[in-house]
Design goal:
The chain has 909 residues and is α/β, with parallel strands linked by helices. Strand 13, helix 11 and strand 14 form a beta-alpha-beta unit. Among the domains are: 197 residues, Alpha-Beta Plaits, CATH 3.30.70; 138 residues, P-loop containing nucleotide triphosphate hydrolases (Rossmann fold, 3-Layer(aba) Sandwich); 97 residues, no CATH class; 77 residues, Arc Repressor Mutant, subunit A; 97 residues. The chain is built from 37 helices and 17 strands. It starts with 7 loop residues before the first strand and ends in a 5-residue tail after the last helix.
C-alpha cells in the first residue's frame, strides 16, 4: 500500500456526470470520447492537489485527499475546466473553449438551446474517519462505512455544476478559504438513509455556476417518512431489487417474519424512490389500528386528507389520489388483511399513477401483486472465518459492529472478538432485531459471553416447537434471553408498557403501570429499558416520548398475559386516557388548544382504550372517553372517529349512570348534527338536555343548548328557537361565570345568524365576543372574534375594516404560534386585499392558505369561503385566469412565515 495514501481522517471527493445514461444513449458515437475527456480533466485536477483516485465506476470518481483544502481546490479547478470545455455539437467536436454560464440549467435545456452536448458534473465533499486497505494488484479500498455513505449522499444531493460540502468539511475550511472562494450556507437537510440531519454548504466563486434549484433532499420533497434514529446497514442489492419491482409493478408486498426488517426495507426503498414520485412518498403504520373499518382513516391521516361531510372517506381518498403520482408505504398489514385488500384494491383501481409498497408477514393475495421476501442479513460461515478485512462485507457483522459501537463507544471488531461476533450473528440467523438486541448488551458483556449464553439458550429451546420455523425460534430465543437479563422490576414494567399503542409519556407510564400494592420506580426502570434498547425514546414537541418496537411489544404483551394482571393494567390505561380527555375537554382548558396533544400524540392509545372498554370490559370508562373525545374530534374535524365512537358508546346508554349517559347523548347529538343527521341529532340533544336539567348540571345544560342551536342551521323556521336556546345558554354562562361557555354561546349565535343571512345580529354577537375576549385577556378568543368580524365586513363589501380585523387576528395568532389559525386567517386577508387593489398578492395568499391548510389536515367552513369569495372574484377579474392560476401555484410553495409576512405587509410585521 502506498505510504502516502490518506488514512485515518480523510477528506473524500465523489463526483458523477448528471444524466450520463441519457447522454450515452443520445450520443452513442461521441460518448466514449466525451467520457475520456471528462476523465482527463478530473485526473488532472486531482493530481494537481495530491489526491488519490481509488475507484471509478462508469463516470463516477471516488477520490481521497489528506486535507479538506486539497479536495476543495481540486473540485473548484475541475469544475472550472469542465465548464470551459465546449464539449462539441451534435456532430461531435470536443475540445473547444466555451464561455461560462452563470445559472443552472439542465443538460437537456442546454442542448435544446445551443444544439451542444452538455456535460455537467455534481460533486460532494466530506471529511471523516476511514482506513485505507491494500487489495492486491495495486487496488485500494476504504473502510469507514458511515463516512463513505455520507459523502455519497452529499454528492447525490447536488446538481450538475454544483459542489456541496458536509458541515464537518466546511468547519475545517471556513477560517482559511482560498482567495475568491466562499461558502453558501444551505441549512440543515435530511439526507436519504441517514439518521441525523446534515448541514450542507455550497462552494461559490465568480467563475462557476452559482444559482441552482432547491436541493432534492428529504427536507424539500413531500413525504412523512419518519426520521430513522440509526443508519440502514447493507442490503444494497435487496433495496435495488425492491426499487426495480416498484418501477415495474403497482403493488409490491414485502413479506417475512417479525424482526427481519420489513419496515426498514420499506422506509429505505421509499427514501431512495422520493425523486420518482413528485407527489410524495407516504408512510402508513397500521400496527396501532385494531378496527378494520379504520384502515382508510389511517391512510387519510398519513396523507393529511380531511374528511368531507356527507361523503364516504374512501371516495375522498380516491379523488385526492386520482391524479397524483405517489407511493404509499402500507406497513404491518397482517392483522388487517381483508381490510387492507379492500383499501388497496379501491385505491389502485381509481388512481392510475398510484403505487403501493406493502409490508406484511404474508402476501395480500391480490391479482397483480408482486411479493418480495425479506431475507436475513448476510452472515459469514462461523466454521471458516473469513479474513478480518473482509468481515465488513457481511451485513450482519456490519450491523452488529455499528450498534455495538453505539452502545459502547470504543467497540471495534478485531482479532480478539471477531470469532465471537461471527458466532452471535450466525446463531441469530442474521435477523436484524435479534442482532441489535444482542449488540446492545456489549455495554455489559463481551461478545464471547453473549455468544456463550445464546448457545445455551438455543439448546434449551431447540425442542420446544417442532413446527415453528427456526427463524422464529431464534427471534423468540433472543427476546427470551434479553428478557431474562432484566430485573424483576424491569420485567414487570416492560410487560405493562405493552398496553400502550403508538408510544407513551413518562406521566402516562407512571399512572398506568403501577397497580395497588406495587413498589415500582417507573422512571428508573424506564431509563434502564431505554439503555438496553428494549424501549425507544424520541422527542415530540420538545418532550421525551417512548415506544416499543412492534415485535418487542407483542412479546411483552404475551408475558403480561401470562402474568395475569392484563385486565387491571388495561383498566388503568383506559381510565388514564378518559381522565386526560375529560381534562382537555373541560371548560378550563382553552389557551393553545391543548387538545391537539391528545389527538396527535395519543390517538392510538385512545382508540385502543375505546376498543377494549366499549367491548364490554369497562363500559362506563369507555363511554366517558368517547363523550370527551367526541367534542375534541369535533374541534379537529375528525368526523369519522367522532361519529363512530359516539355511536358505539350510545349503544350502551341503558347501562350508564345518568350523567355519563347524558354526556354521551350530547356528544352523539353533536356528531349527528355535523353529519347533517338533524332528525336524529335533535332528539338526542333534547334527551341529554332533559337529563342535565334533572341533574341540575347548569353548565352542561348550557353546553347542550349551544349544540342544539347548531341543529337549526338547516331550517329558517327554527331560527327563533335557536335564538331562544342561545339566550338561555348565555344567561347560564354569565350567571355561573363559565367564560368558555359564554364565548361559545356568543359565537354560535353569530354562526347561525350568518347562515340565516342576518348579518346585523351576527355582527353584534361577534362584537360582544370580541369585548368578552379582551376583558378576559384571552388572545386566542380575541383573534377568532376579529376574524369573524372581518368576514362580516367582507360580506358587506366594507373591505378596509375587514382587512384591519383580519390582520389583527393574524398578529394575535402568530404570537401564540397557532399554525392552523394563522393559515385559516390568510384567506380573510386575501379576500380583503383582492378587493382593495392587490390582486397579485391576493392570489398568492389564496394559494398559500389552501396548501398550508391541506398540510395541516384542516380547511375552511363553506360559509367562510362564501364570505371571502367576492375578493377572489375581483382579483381573478383584474389579472385574468392564467396569471391568477400561476400566482396561486406560486403561493402554494410559500412557507407559513413567508405567507404571514406577505399578509401583514412590510409595515405591519
Amino acid at each position: 500500500m502506498p505510504s502516502d495514501l490518506p488514512s485515518g481522517t480523510v477528506t473524500f471527493l465523489f463526483t458523477d456526470i448528471e444524466g450520463s445514461t441519457r447522454l450515452a444513449q443520445e450520443h452513442r458515437d461521441q460518448w466514449e470520447s466525451l467520457r475520456a475527456r471528462h476523465h482527463e480533466i478530473l485526473h488532472e485536477a486531482v493530481r494537481a492537489h495530491d489526491g488519490h483516485v481509488f475507484e471509478i465506476v462508469g463516470d463516477a470518481f471516488c477520490v481521497a485527499f489528506h486535507t479538506a483544502a486539497q479536495a476543495l481546490e481540486a473540485a473548484v479547478d475541475a469544475q472550472k475546466a469542465l465548464q470551459r470545455e465546449a464539449w462539441g455539437d451534435a456532430g461531435g467536436h470536443p475540445g473547444r473553449t466555451a464561455s461560462p454560464a452563470k445559472s443552472w440549467s439542465s443538460p437537456r435545456d442546454d442542448m435544446s438551446r445551443r444544439g451542444d452536448i452538455s456535460i455537467k458534473v455534481r460533486m460532494g465533499i466530506h471529511t471523516g474517519a476511514a482506513q485505507a486497505a491494500h487489495e492486491g494488484a495495486g487496488a485500494v479500498r476504504y473502510t469507514g462505512y458511515l463516512t463513505l455513505v455520507l459523502v455519497q449522499r452529499v454528492m447525490s444531493t447536488a446538481y450538475g455544476g454544483q459542489v456541496l460540502l458536509s458541515n464537518s468539511t466546511a468547519e475545517l475550511l471556513l477560517r482559511d478559504l482560498p482567495s475568491g472562494v466562499t461558502l453558501r450556507d444551505m441549512k440543515e437537510h435530511r439526507l436519504k438513509g441517514l439518521p441525523e440531519p446534515e448541514r450542507l454548504w455550497q462552494v461559490t466563486t465568480a467563475d462557476l455556476l452559482q444559482d441552482f434549484p432547491a436541493l432534492k433532499t428529504l427536507t424539500t420533497v413531500p413525504n412523512n417518512l419518519p426520521l430513522q434514529l440509526s443508519s440502514f446497514i447493507g442490503r444494497e442489492k435487496e433495496i435495488a431489487e425492491i426499487k426495480s419491482l416498484v418501477a415495474a409493478n403497482r403493488l409490491v408486498t414485502l413479506t417475512g417474519s417479525g424482526g427481519v426488517g420489513k419496515t426498514r426495507h420499506a422506509l429505505q426503498a421509499g427514501t431512495e424512490l422520493l425523486d420518482d414520485f413528485p407527489d410524495g412518498v407516504w408512510f402508513v403504520d397500521l400496527a396501532p389500528v385494531s378496527d378494520p373499518a379504520l384502515v382508510p382513516h389511517a391512510v387519510a391521516s398519513a396523507l393529511n386528507v380531511r374528511e368531507e361531510l356527507g361523503r364516504p372517506l374512501m371516495t375522498t381518498l380516491q379523488e385526492f389520489l386520482e391524479a397524483r403520482n405517489a407511493l404509499l408505504l402500507l406497513d404491518n398489514c397482517e392483522h388487517l388483511l381483508e381490510a387492507c385488500v379492500q383499501t388497496v384494491e379501491a385505491l389502485l383501481r381509481s388512481c392510475p399513477a398510484l403505487k403501493i409498497l406493502a409490508g406484511s408477514r404474508e402476501a395480500l393475495g391480490m391479482t397483480g401483486e408482486m411479493a418480495f421476501r425479506v431475507a436475513s442479513l448476510s452472515v459469514p460461515d462461523a466454521k471458516r472465518l473469513p479474513p478480518l478485512e473482509h468481515l465488513a462485507d457481511y451485513d450482519a457483522v456490519r450491523l452488529f459492529a455499528e450498534r455495538a459501537a453505539a452502545s459502547r463507544g470504543q467497540f471495534q471488531v478485531g482479532p480478539g472478538n471477531a470469532e465471537a461476533v461471527v458466532q452471535v450473528c450466525a446463531r441469530l440467523d442474521g435477523i436484524p432485531l435479534a442482532i441489535e438486541l444482542a449488540a446492545a448488551r456489549v455495554n455489559a458483556f463481551s461478545p464471547e459471553q453473549i455468544a456463550a449464553r445464546l448457545d445455551d439458550r438455543f439448546k434449551i429451546l431447540a425442542g420446544k416447537s417442532g413446527t415453528a420455523l427456526a427463524r422464529h425460534q431464534t427471534l423468540r430465543a433472543v427476546l427470551d434471553w434479553s428478557y431474562s437479563l432484566l430485573s424483576r422490576e424491569e420485567q414487570v414494567v416492560l410487560q405493562r408498557l405493552s398496553i400502550f399503542a403508538g408510544g407513551w409519556t413518562l406521566e402516562a407510564a407512571e399512572s398506568v403501570c403501577v397497580l395497588d400494592g406495587d413498589d415500582l420506580n417507573i422512571m428508573d426502570a424506564l431509563a434502564r429499558l431505554v439503555d438496553k434498547s428494549l424501549v425507544q425514546m424520541t422527542e415530540a414537541g420538545g418532550r421525551p416520548r417512548y415506544r416499543l418496537l412492534e415485535t418487542t411489544r407483542q412479546y411483552a404483551h404475551g408475558q403480561a398475559t401470562a402474568a395475569g394482571d392484563g385486565d387491571a393494567v388495561r383498566a388503568r390505561h383506559a381510565e388514564y386516557f378518559a381522565e386526560l380527555a375529560e381534562r382537555v375537554e373541560s371548560e378550563d382548558v382553552r389557551e393553545g388548544f391543548v387538545a391537539t396533544l391528545s389527538v396527535t400524540g395519543e390517538q392510538d392509545n385512545i382508540l385502543t382504550a375505546l376498543e377494549w372498554a366499549l367491548s364490554g370490559q369497562a363500559v362506563e370508562t369507555g363511554a366517558r372517553l368517547a363523550a370527551a373525545m367526541g367534542h375534541i374530534w369535533d374541534w379537529h374535524a375528525l368526523f369519522a372517529l367522532q361519529a363512530h365512537w359516539t355511536r358505539r358508546a350510545r349503544s350502551h346508554r341503558q347501562a350508564l349512570p345518568p350523567e355519563v349517559k347524558a354526556r354521551v347523548l350530547a356528544a352523539s347529538a353533536r356528531a349527528e348534527a355535523i353529519q347533517n343527521n338533524m332528525a336524529e341529532a335533535r332528539p338526542l340533544g333534547l334527551e341529554a338536555l332533559a337529563i342535565f336539567r334533572e341533574l341540575g348540571n347548569a353548565y352542561w345544560v348550557g353546553r347542550t343548548l349551544v349544540d342544539l342551536v347548531d341543529t337549526t342551521v338547516d331550517s329558517a323556521t327554527e331560527y327563533a328557537q335557536a335564538k331562544a336556546w342561545q339566550a338561555e345558554a348565555l344567561a347560564i354562562a354569565r350567571e355561573g361565570g363559565h367564560s368558555r361557555l359564554e364565548h361559545m354561546a356568543l359565537v354560535v349565535l353569530g354562526e347561525v345568524a350568518r347562515a340565516a343571512g342576518d348579518y346585523a345580529t351576527a355582527k353584534t354577537a361577534y362584537e360582544d365576543t370580541l369585548r368578552h375576549a379582551v376583558q378576559l385577556g384571552d388572545s386566542l378568543m380575541e383573534s377568532i372574534a376579529c376574524y369573524d368580524l372581518s368576514l362580516v365586513h367582507a360580506h358587506g363589501k366594507d373591505y378596509a375594516p375587514a382587512l384591519d380585523y383580519a390582520r389583527r387576528a393574524m398578529q394575535l395568532t402568530t404570537r401564540q404560534q397557532q399554525d392552523v389559525q394563522s393559515a385559516y386567517f390568510l384567506t380573510g386577508i386575501a379576500g380583503a386585499i383582492g378587493a382593495l387593489g392587490q390582486p397579485e398578492n391576493a392570489a398568492r395568499l389564496y394559494g398559500a392558505s389552501e396548501s398550508l391548510l391541506e398540510g395541516l389536515g384542516s380547511g375552511l367552513q363553506p360559509i367562510d369561503l362564501t364570505d371571502c369569495e367576492t375578493g377572489r372574484l375581483v382579483a381573478l377579474a383584474l389579472i385574468g385566469s392564467e396569471k391568477f392560476e400561476a400566482l396561486l401555484a406560486e403561493g402554494r410553495t410559500m412557507t407559513l412565515e413567508q405567507a404571514v409576512a406577505l399578509a401583514l405587509g412590510p409595515d405591519r410585521t
